[in-house]
Specification:
The complex is a heterotrimer. Chain A is an alpha+beta fold. Chain A folds into 2 domains: 69 residues, Helix Hairpins (Orthogonal Bundle); 164 residues, Cupredoxins -  blue copper proteins (Immunoglobulin-like, Sandwich), CATH 2.60.40. Chain A has 5 helices and 11 strands; from the N terminus they run H-H-E-E-E-E-E-E-E-E-E-E-H-H-E-H. Chain A has a 6-stranded mixed beta sheet. The longest helix of chain A is centred in the N-terminal third of the chain and has 34 residues. Chain C is mainly alpha-helical. In chain C, helix 12 runs parallel beside helix 15. The chains are: A alpha+beta, B mainly alpha, C mainly alpha. At the A-C interface, helix 1, helix 2 and strand 7 of A face helix 4, helix 8, helix 10, helix 11 and helix 12 of C.
Chain lengths: 267, 195, 653
């Protein structure tokens, strides 16, 4: 499976990682070296340094040791504020109108619905390269976590709630996506194929899905919902309107717009 | 020698009282998390009945009155012990127990009534949170009652002393604490349903 | 639920025995054999009475402390067996099932985390607190000795439930965090999650009481002149840790009780349907869970502070800074819990604020590292094993801190959450940060407790095995996480992962050698205890009060209560020659009598838990009644103390 495919989100997250990592190395590497050096220089058995057993304070050192971490965390904090907003998974990516895909986590497989194309697939999701993708995600079972590692980003899938993730692939290729949150016996194999393809190939793929004769309905969904490990790829040529929203709503008898409120025990 | 041991005893009691305050703080955190959970789940009716359909104003008023008065009587018991009146201490403690038992009886009647109406704790998230919050308070009251009855027995056996007064003082604190929690339950759980 | 619940045995039946896999079956046999072997050994040595009066019913904080640490070391071995089994499975399981079926693998990763946090790290910490803090503050005991025994026995009851789950029934498969709705009955019926709930719930009650006990002990039982700003760092960190305990543990109690109510009484706190809200569980759990990290690590920081000063033969640098840093960390630890679920879909503002709050904790933590560094600076460093662990910690911990800051940046967290990067990060905090600290403390204070030193050579070997083993086991996991490998994988299909997983397994084997070295160290030292004898009570040229008394200390600790005039009180008195205290007191001392209340409540707690797990309601209520009766009975009993005469210098136990 080709894993070198990448997209703007993965690139930005990666870049931020190395940026923050390098900044911290500036402090961390000297600290480690200094620790080893001091330990060696002031060793009791033949160490060279001066011995001042009662020396326990120095204003300059105190200011420095509080100052260095404060400055560093200050810099990082501005990056966090800026990048967290820029890379908000709910934020639509610029460019063309996004392709809308809805993902439902089942035991132990993924159902993808293309509401605008009126088709659905199991364990395979395809999309045109360089087009923004807008996922709405939920779960029918335990909490899952949706991720296509090559494209970056990750978001929980929770029953009765909807989360969102915006991604994009910059290259053509096949990737593996998966559930990242342990959810039972089939967890290890709960992967799906994510295919980034040219616009023409994508249209051909959509036609292939449409040419099948199985519809996603109550019966086929009930069948699909039965727990199974390593389920094969499957296609549904038609999908009822608002299927995803109704699956979200049926758990609660109450409407959660999205899961954007982590308002549990905090008061 | 007697004076010295009194001093030691006093110090031990003081430490125990401090420890008890810490326990109450920890318990206050526990209750505030239960209140928080109730707030989060207050709209999760899942098609089941809400508080306005279930709660009875008269029952609530009686319960609240019983508990508030019991807070007064236990304070009187502590005062009596402090001033060395054994009989009065016992009398007020017995009254406190009766009031507390009355409160519990009404609570059990109310909650079992809900269960009979198919509004038990398994009906909805809201009712789970309601039963757990109110039930936890009720369990605390039960513990307080057992404690109070134990103290009555100990007062009878040991009479009034520093150690016993300190124990009663801690029970009084506990009882007032439960009163405060109940005021929270009253105003955050019940009252909004009547407004 | 259509389970068959009988009145007498609840849902316990013959199918509870572990015949489902040979690995589980041998685990059960080893557990049983260990228990039986212990019973036979005690009987054979004829030591039942000594064990009962000297240890099990003891309310002496020193004995209780030692029992806590013994429990922790036993559980360390059990938790480590789980760890190396996981490493072996993952090293093997490329496109194959390995040797563990999924359900068994899931039990192992769940029990590994649960044991290491609740039954290894917590008892280890509590044991060190118990043994050392009264000695460091010049006190004869903790504030509430019997309560202390009850705390220990409740922890032991929880550990007992944990161990028995290996023999009767199964353990949870829902991980050590027990996230619903997966941990609900809908997805995980059976007794596993209930074992998890009740073992941590019962031990959690004990921990809460420990927190109360030590706050009162530290704030009210210090020797005259021991001002707050003269307290040793370990005592300071113990105080902060205890404060965190009483504020944080209610959240664990609430979250697990609600999960138990969902599972047992069919309530809907965290279920998918009927108005449950599982996000509430995560908030509650981590409101406890994040402070818990600091509950564990602050005392370890305290140990490093003691060790680094003693073995550098120098005053601790920046004591006020270290105190402030500790309290700041304690307070901030309550403001960051949301970083455990940045991927839940909260808005960018919320995520950014919690990310920044998390990184702010790096500031006081960084200050601490610098302060230890400057304590070594201009010192005379002796590389005894505790000091080696400390230097190893300083080098490794900054790496873990760095990966922690990376995880605190929400966009980076989106791509590393739930991967082995996260696993590597928290092991990087907990092994060098927590465990190295406790092991350093164990080797540092061992001569105080037993009157002889631990063998230096095996101690150093253990350190090097732990250090290299840790690096080999967890650096690959950082890399694997960045390659997108999720945690908790029973099998996988990516061939690029396997070499790194094999390296990680080799690392685990080295850690095994580290543990073997610990056992060897103990064995060799006991054999040579005469040669290693500590006759002075001050083998390391110590600085704090615990070194001013004989090793091992008498039951009453101090013949007469010391009068403190400075920080590093004992060191000061060695320099100035001023004795710490006046002559032994004439009057007899009162020390608490042994009490059977501790073991009784422990047994009662175990019955409550076991009954609740298996729906054996009579057992549960019998246990509850027994506990209440024991407490009430105890309160009628006035003659709780016994007189001793320190002047005679006789050991009373």
């Amino acid at each position: 499976m080709k894993q070198v495919v990448t997209g703007p989100i993965a690139e930005a997250e990666n870049a931020l990682m190395w940026q923050a990592f390098s900044l911290m190395l500036v402090v961390v590497v000297p600290v480690i070296l200094l620790t080893l050096f001091v330990a060696w220089r002031y060793r009791a058995a033949g160490g060279q340094g001066a011995y001042k057993p009662d020396w326990d304070r120095s204003r300059i050192i105190e200011i420095t040791v509080w100052g260095i971490p404060i400055v560093m965390i200050g810099i990082l904090a501005t990056w966090v504020w800026d990048r967290t907003h820029a890379l908000d998974p709910y934020k639509q990516l610029p460019g063309a109108e996004p392709l809308r895909i809805e993902a439902i986590a089942l035991d132990w497989k993924w159902l993808f619905i293309y509401p605008d194309l009126n088709i659905a697939t199991v364990n395979q999701v395809a999309f045109p390269v360089e087009q923004p993708l807008s996922f709405r995600i939920t779960s029918e079972v335990a909490m899952n976590s949706f991720m296509i590692p090559a494209l970056g980003g990750q978001i929980y899938a929770m029953a009765g709630m909807e989360t969102q993730l915006n991604l994009q692939a910059n290259e053509i290729g096949a990737m593996q996506g998966r559930n990242m949150q342990f959810s039972g016996d089939g967890f290890s194999d709960q992967t799906f194929e994510a295919l980034s393809m040219s616009q023409i190939d994508f249209e051909a793929w959509v036609n292939k899905v449409r040419s099948g004769d199985s519809a996603l309905d109550q019966a086929s969904f009930a069948e699909l919902s039965k727990p199974s490990i390593d389920a094969p790829i499957a296609y549904f040529s038609t999908v009822p309107q608002d299927f995803f929203s109704r699956r979200v709503a049926h758990f609660m008898g109450m409407e959660h717009e999205h899961a954007g409120h982590s308002d549990g025990g905090d008061k | 020698m007697i004076a010295a041991s009194d001093k030691v005893e006093e110090q031990i009691d003081e430490e125990t009282e401090f420890g008890f305050w810490l326990y109450l703080m920890s318990d206050a955190v526990l209750f505030s998390l239960l209140f928080g959970t109730f707030a989060v789940m207050s709209s999760n009716l899942a098609g089941g009945p809400g508080g306005s359909a279930l709660f009875d104003m008269k029952n609530l008023a009686t319960q609240t009155a019983l508990l508030l008065v019991s807070s007064l009587t236990i304070a009187l018991a502590h005062h009596a012990a402090h001033t060395g009146h054994l009989a009065r201490t016992l009398g007020w403690l017995v009254v406190t127990c009766l009031l507390g038992a009355g409160f519990l009886g009404l609570e059990i009647k109310e909650l079992s009534g809900f269960v009979a109406q198919d509004a038990g704790p398994g009906r909805s998230g809201y009712l789970s949170a309601f039963f757990t919050l109110v039930g936890t308070h009720g369990l605390h009251v039960t513990a307080g009652l057992i404690w109070a009855m134990t103290l009555i027995a100990q007062f009878l056996i040991k009479g009034i002393g520093l150690r016993m007064t300190s124990r009663l003082y801690r029970l009084t604190l506990f009882w007032h604490f439960l009163d405060i929690v109940w005021i929270g339950v009253f105003s955050l759980v019940y009252l909004p349903e009547f407004l | 639920m259509t389970e068959n619940v009988s009145l007498l045995f609840g849902r316990l039946g013959p199918d509870a025995l572990p015949f489902y896999s040979w690995v589980a079956f041998s685990g059960a046999l080893v557990t049983l054999a260990g228990g039986l072997g212990f019973l036979i050994l005690v009987t054979w040595l004829g030591q039942w009475r000594a064990l009962w009066t000297g240890w099990l019913t003891s309310v002496d904080h020193k004995r209780i402390g030692i029992m806590y640490i013994v429990l922790a070391l036993i559980m360390l071995v059990r938790g480590f067996v789980d760890a190396i089994m996981m490493r072996l499975q993952q090293a093997m399981a490329l496109n194959s099932d390995g040797y563990l079926p999924p359900e068994h693998f899931e039990q192992i990763f769940s029990s590994h985390g649960t044991i290491m946090i609740f039954f290894m790290a917590m008892p280890f910490m509590t044991g060190l607190l118990n043994y050392i803090i009264p000695l460091q503050i010049g006190s004869r005991d903790v504030a509430f000795p019997v309560l202390n025994a009850i705390s220990f026995w409740l922890t032991a009851a929880g550990a007992g439930l944990m161990l028995i789950s290996l023999v009767i029934g199964r353990f949870s498969t829902a991980g050590w965090t027990g996230y619903p709705p997966y941990s609900g009955v809908e997805f995980t019926p059976g007794v596993g999650v209930d074992y998890w709930i009740w073992s941590i719930l019962i031990s959690g009650v004990g921990t809460t009481m420990t927190g109360i006990n030590f706050i009162v002990t530290i704030l009210r039982k210090r020797a005259p002149g021991m001002l707050l700003m003269r307290m040793p760092m370990f005592t300071w960190t113990g105080l902060c840790s205890s404060v965190l305990i009483i504020f944080a543990f209610p959240a664990l109690t609430v979250s697990t009780v609600m999960l138990a109510l969902d599972r047992t009484l069919g309530m809907h706190f965290f279920t998918n349907d009927s108005g449950g809200n599982m996000m509430n569980y995560m908030n509650l759990f981590w409101i406890w869970g994040h402070p818990e990290v600091y509950i564990l690590v602050l005392p370890a920081f305290g140990i490093f502070s003691e060790v680094v000063a003693t073995f550098s033969s120098k005053r601790l640098f920046g004591y006020p800074s270290l105190v402030y840093a500790t309290t700041v960390i304690a307070i901030l630890s309550f403001t960051v819990w949301l970083h455990h679920f940045f991927t839940m879909g909260a808005g960018a503002n919320v995520n950014a604020i919690f990310g920044i709050a998390t990184m702010v904790i790096a500031v006081p933590t960084g200050v601490k590292v610098f302060d230890w560094l400057f304590t070594m600076f201009r010192g005379r460093i002796r590389f005894e094993p505790p000091m080696k662990f400390t230097i190893g910690f300083m080098c490794l911990f900054v790496i873990g801190g760095m990966s922690g800051v990376l995880l605190a940046i929400p966009p980076i967290n989106y791509s590393t959450h739930n991967t082995t990067f996260l696993v590597a990060h928290f092991h990087n905090m907990i092994i060098p940060g927590v465990l190295f600290g406790y092991l350093a403390g164990y080797m540092y204070w061992f001569p105080k407790a037993f009157g002889f030193q631990l063998d230096r050579k095996w101690g150093s070997r253990s350190f090097w095995f732990w250090l290299v083993g840790f690096l080999l086991a967890f650096m690959p996991l950082y890399a694997l996480g960045l390659m997108g490998m999720p945690r908790r994988m029973e099998t996988y299909g990516n061939p690029e992962w396997q070499p790194l997983l094999i390296v990680a397994f080799i690392g685990a084997c080295l850690i095994l050698l580290g543990i073997v070295s610990l056992v060897m160290q103990l064995w060799v030292s006991i054999k040579q205890r005469d040669a290693l004898k500590d006759t002075t009570g001050d083998p390391w040229d110590g600085r704090t009060l615990e070194w001013s008394i004989p090793s091992p200390p008498p039951v009453w600790n101090f013949d007469s209560v010391p009068v403190v005039t400075a920080r590093d009180a004992f060191h000061e008195s060695k320099i100035t020659g001023v004795v710490l205290s006046v002559a032994p007191e004439e009057e007899p001392l009162l020390i608490p009598r042994n009490s059977t209340v501790g073991p009784i409540i422990g047994a009662a707690g175990f019955c409550v838990g076991f009954g609740a797990v298996w729906f054996i309601w009579w057992l549960m209520f019998a246990g509850l009644a027994l506990a209440i009766a024991a407490i009430i009975g105890r309160s009628f009993f006035d003659d709780t103390e016994v007189e001793v005469f320190p002047g005679e210098g006789a050991e009373s136990i």
